[in-house]
Write a structure and sequence with these properties.
The complex is a heterodimer of chains A (about 500) and B (about 450). Chain A is α/β, with parallel strands linked by helices and about 500 residues long. Chain A has 2 domains: about 280 residues, Type I PLP-dependent aspartate aminotransferase-like (Major domain) (Aspartate Aminotransferase, domain 2); about 130 residues, Aspartate Aminotransferase, domain 1. Chain A is built from 16 helices and 12 strands. In chain A, the strands form 3 sheets. In chain A, strands 1-7-6-5-4-2-3 form a 7-stranded mixed β-sheet, with helices on both faces. A 3-stranded antiparallel β-sheet of chain A has the order 10-12-11, covered by helices on one side. In chain A, strands 8-9 form a two-stranded antiparallel sheet. Chain B is an alpha/beta fold. Chain B contains 13 helices and 17 strands. Classes of the chains: A alpha/beta (about 500), B alpha/beta (about 450). At the A-B interface, helix 2, helix 3, helix 4, helix 5 and helix 6 of A face helix 1, helix 2, helix 3, helix 4 and helix 5 of B.
């Protein structure tokens, strides 16, 4: 494949991809004291060449639309096309955020109902849709917890306990809230060490952050015991919702003792990852934490309880604004932590999540998680004789003897012993058309595989076959494995060099 | 429809393959005590046809056909069709964060180009691959300044967008950092008050230009005050205005943070938008967010990868420069296509059209005897107008005439009662503005 030139190298003075209307009013002169007289240096390019440039770039990228992405903890499921259609509707995409409530009833109704759906799925009392992404949701939730304790005369509670397998955003978010993170050990079986947890719990602890199912792909069966310990110590149990795709309609965090959690709509609810964003990170909380949620909150007027019966639709939800029901922003929340972003949230992303939940319905959502779990166990079953499962069943047993949740971890010691690195496996998968699994997280030398529910059985088999073929090759000669990738636009990169002497922008050649 | 492809027969085969009699065998880890026995209380599934009808009817309950003079941080600009077409390519929409460089050269190159264009636009040395949106980008800039200087106080102009100031207060509230607001003198930052507030513990001065009320601030003067005090200057900017306005880099600003929505991103009820973030070279390693760098591959060919990741949360954990994990990839792509499509001349022209029209409207309002509070200072494309009738009445009349007349600012600026903030983009016509003047005059 040929290299694709940079936009700036394609630039031709005088070219342009747009034409603009003539001005129907007189020209005005910007005060020279504030005007810029230098050129920006932006590229000049015609429309067709611009289209070709980005089309070429699109061919130099993996995507769910073209490739299987078994990325552990990332839930790279199919992004339904109807969701994109919905977000692009003029009545949604064209709505100004400061439009009056009367002019935005459809958008507010959508947000209100999404909030109610997410409350139900979490088994918690109130949801804020505002956070921009998972990490932002985490930070927002920790702010809520700190505000609660300050309001209750316990501002000294500034310690957050997190397992050593926690996602890196957990400690970073804590630091941004002025909280200190203390790590709690995990047991060899991947579950939290309750004795170590107990040893760390005291009256300085604000929250304990867990991921459940956890990052090694196991549902923590001690979670309620853990919740009891955390609550007895006067702290809150926080759930990182990264792995919600394993428990939709099967178990609800609120029911197993979680007090506060964040969702990642781009994981669980099929909103696209977009090369790294936009995401959305709604948070769900128990009643006693609700007063501290960000402002504003979307509410239903005449909110007589959480549910109202719509006779016509026969469902327990009123899904359209009507003469009986109006939706509005509630700004009057004196205990709120305040605003966490401009305007109201990642609306276009939330539209997609709403469309997904409506398409699936309750039985469909449960089926999503069941199928995701089945798919993970199926791949694990197919490769485990070669790719060891440190948290799986004993040799010779089937996965059903000690199943994983929607993802699992393998430490392929046999291959490592032959001199094949985890990165070698990753790069060989790329050559075979698969995006590599998550690597070296949450433990060193591991692959973390999450197939999601939307892949066909043929794809699951092809991926297992690829892993087995790599293992087979490693028994003969590892040199070809070291050379990968060969079929990508570029080969292995000098990433060390990139960090040592950073080149973060194009500059014209010195003349 | 839940988009599952595995058939019932395959499901049975797969269950058998893993040694399970049924799916419950795989759910054993979830204790019975809290395993749900009934369905979630959610509305029933919808087929695509029904779903589309439902979503279309929700969309139809929003009134988006009105002529839009609303701005205040989100603007109704023209979006060329080429932006939608390219940014909606599935290869970009459904790709993951480009950690695996060999499988992500398209996204990485696009972000490298984006970083370059943000530098060109702002006149700054380095830019990141984007943050969430304008307010959080500004807050990250303030956290970065606190980190760089080791000082503990920030001075924030009251001309900064009220939402941005509120978000900043939230970001600082649990940290050992003081937020001090600098008042306005009329409708621009009171530079004397600012100079008085500067002290040894001032990490940064935060100013927005054009400010929330539409006026262009004396950023170069504010920068000089800040630097004389060994403080940093952070400017919140509107990227489109930089088609004609002096760039942050030309005024020696240290950190520039802005809302990228005007660059080809739909209004979409407030999000997702795009946080633009750029700074001086010497602060590069203190930047938040993703950075793409140029390097070479094993054959010596140019290639791109995420770089300086030792700043980031997944390596540095609690010592990271920020907790930011995602960027706004797809929105950064939109902005890139927009900027490349416009080019330097197109961007200058769009900015000039906005300014021409705002100037025309200001003139007409003045002729009609209405008070335009900006008239004594240069503005870009927003006007602060005080109608003779109550603002609420004006808004209702405008709405009846199918117009969104502007944003009332009373709640955020009680010191400027009964004022309307009116934004004019290149989409507004002379006829629409003439009609607006009629309505405002009453």
């Amino acid at each position: 494949m040929h290299d694709e030139k940079l936009l700036f190298e394609l630039s031709t003075p005088g070219a342009s991809a747009v034409d603009l209307p003539d001005c129907d009013v007189p020209e005005a002169q910007m005060d020279p004291a504030f005007a810029s007289f230098t050129e920006t240096g932006l590229p000049e390019i015609g429309q067709l060449d611009l289209v070709r440039h980005y089309t070429h770039l699109s061919h130099r990228n993996f995507s769910v639309d073209a490739n299987f992405y078994p990325l552990g903890s990332c839930t790279m499921k199919y992004n339904p096309k109807v969701n994109e259609w919905a977000a692009g509707l003029e009545g949604l995409a064209g709505l100004h955020p400061l439009a009056s409530e009367a002019d935005a009833q459809g958008a507010l109704a959508l947000l209100y109902h999404l909030r109610v759906f997410l409350q139900e799925i979490a088994g918690l009392d109130e949801v804020s849709l505002q956070p921009c992404a998972g990490a932002h949701g985490e930070w927002t939730a920790l702010k809520v917890i700190r505000a609660y304790f300050r309001d209750h005369g316990q501002d000294k509670r500034r310690i957050v306990l997190a397992p050593d397998t926690a996602h890196g955003t957990n400690p970073a978010s804590c630091a941004m809230c002025g909280a200190n993170v203390v790590t709690v050990k995990s047991l060899p079986n991947g579950l939290t060490d309750l004795d170590d947890l107990k040893a760390h719990l005291n009256d300085q602890v604000a929250a304990v952050m867990v991921t459940n199912p956890n990052t090694v792909g196991k549902f923590d069966s001690h979670i309620t015991e853990m919740a009891r310990m955390v609550h007895d110590a006067g702290a809150f149990l926080y759930l990182d919702g990264a792995n919600m795709n394993a428990i939709l309609g099967i178990a609800r965090p609120g029911d197993f003792g979680v007090d506060i959690m964040h969702y990642n709509t781009h994981k669980t609810f099929s909103t696209p990852h977009g090369c790294g964003g936009p995401g959305a990170g709604p948070i769900a909380v128990r009643k006693q934490l609700a007063p501290y949620l960000p402002v504003p909150q979307v509410v239903q007027e005449k909110d007589e309880g959480r549910r109202m019966r719509d006779e016509k639709e026969g469902s327990s939800f009123i899904l359209h604004p009507s003469s009986l029901v109006r939706y509005r922003w509630d700004h009057a929340r004196p205990k709120s932590i305040g605003k966490v972003r401009s305007f109201w949230g990642q609306f276009g992303v939330l539209v997609r999540a709403y469309a997904y939940i409506r398409a699936c319905g309750p039985a469909g959502l449960r089926n999503v998680s069941e199928t995701a779990i089945l798919a993970a166990n199926y791949i694990a079953q197919r490769i485990k004789h070669v790719y060891a499962l440190p948290f799986g069943p004993k040799d010779g047993q089937n996965m059903a003897a000690n199943p994983c949740a929607h993802e699992f971890i393998t430490v392929p010691q046999a291959l490592i012993d032959r001199g094949v690195s985890i990165m070698d496996i990753a790069k060989n998968l790329i050559d075979r058309g698969f995006h590599p699994p998550t690597v070296h997280f949450p433990i060193h030398d591991c692959l973390m595989i999450e197939p999601t529910e939307t892949e066909s059985r043929a794809t699951l088999d092809a991926f297992a076959d690829a892993l087995l073929a790599i293992a087979e090759q490693s028994e003969k000669d590892i040199e070809p494995l070291k050379a990968a990738p060969m079929r990508t636009p570029v080969r292995r990169l000098d990433e060390v060099g990139a960090a040592r002497k950073p080149v973060l922008r194009w500059s014209p050649e010195p003349t | 429809m839940n988009y599952i492809q595995i058939t019932d027969k395959q499901r049975q085969d797969m269950l058998r393959a893993v040694g399970a009699a049924g799916i419950d065998d795989l759910l054993r880890q979830v204790p019975d005590a809290y395993r749900l026995t009934g369905p979630l209380d959610l509305p029933p599934a919808m087929d695509e046809m029904t779903l589309r009808g439902h979503l279309a009817s929700l969309a139809a309950q929003n009134r988006t056909e009105k002529v839009c003079f609303l701005g205040a941080g989100a603007y109704d600009h023209f979006i060329p069709a080429v932006v939608d077409a390219l940014a909606m390519k599935g290869e970009f929409v459904t790709a993951y964060t480009p950690y695996q460089a060999e499988a992500s050269q398209g996204a990485l190159q696009a972000f490298f180009e984006f970083q370059t264009m943000v530098c060109q636009l702002t006149g700054m040395d380095v830019a990141n691959a984007s943050l969430y949106e304008g307010a959080t980008a500004l807050a990250e800039g303030v956290l970065m300044a606190l980190n760089i200087t080791g000082k503990r106080q920030v001075l924030v102009s009251r001309g900064v967008h009220p939402h941005y100031r509120q978000v900043l207060r939230t970001y600082l509230s649990d940290l050992p950092a003081a937020y001090i607001e600098v008042p306005l003198k009329g409708t621009v930052t009171d530079t004397l008050a600012l100079e008085n507030e500067l002290d040894a513990d001032t990490a940064a001065v935060v100013v927005q230009s054009p400010n929330f009320l539409g006026l262009i601030e004396a950023v170069d003067t504010i920068v000089k005050f800040a630097h004389a005090n060994e403080s940093l200057c952070i400017q919140a900017f509107n990227p489109l205005s930089l088609g004609i306005l002096k760039r942050p880099g030309e005024m020696d600003v240290d950190i520039a943070a802005g809302e990228g929505q005007p660059l080809g991103i739909p209004l979409s009820f407030g999000g997702p938008y795009l946080g633009l973030f750029a700074c001086k070279q010497q602060y590069m390693r203190k930047m938040p967010g993703r950075l793409v760098g140029q390097t070479v591959d094993a054959d010596g060919r140019r290639a791109f990868c995420l770089t300086l990741q030792t700043r980031e949360q997944h390596i540095r954990r609690e010592k990271a420069t920020s907790n930011v994990c995602t960027n706004q990839g797809l929105l950064a792509l939109r902005a890139s296509v927009y900027l490349a499509a416009m080019g330097p001349k197109g961007l200058r022209r769009v900015a000039q059209l906005c300014h021409n029209k705002a100037a025309y409207l200001a003139g007409r309002l003045g002729e009609a005897g209405l008070e335009v509070l900006n008239s004594r200072h240069p503005f870009f494309n927003e006007l602060l107008v005080r109608p003779k009738r109550p603002v609420q009445q004006v808004l209702e009349d405008a709405s009846a005439a199918n117009m969104l007349a502007g944003h009332p600012i009373d709640k955020d600026y009680p010191e400027l009662p009964n004022c309307l903030l009116i934004a004019v983009t290149e989409k507004r016509t002379k006829a629409e503005m003439d009609q607006l003047v009629q309505i405002l005059r009453g």
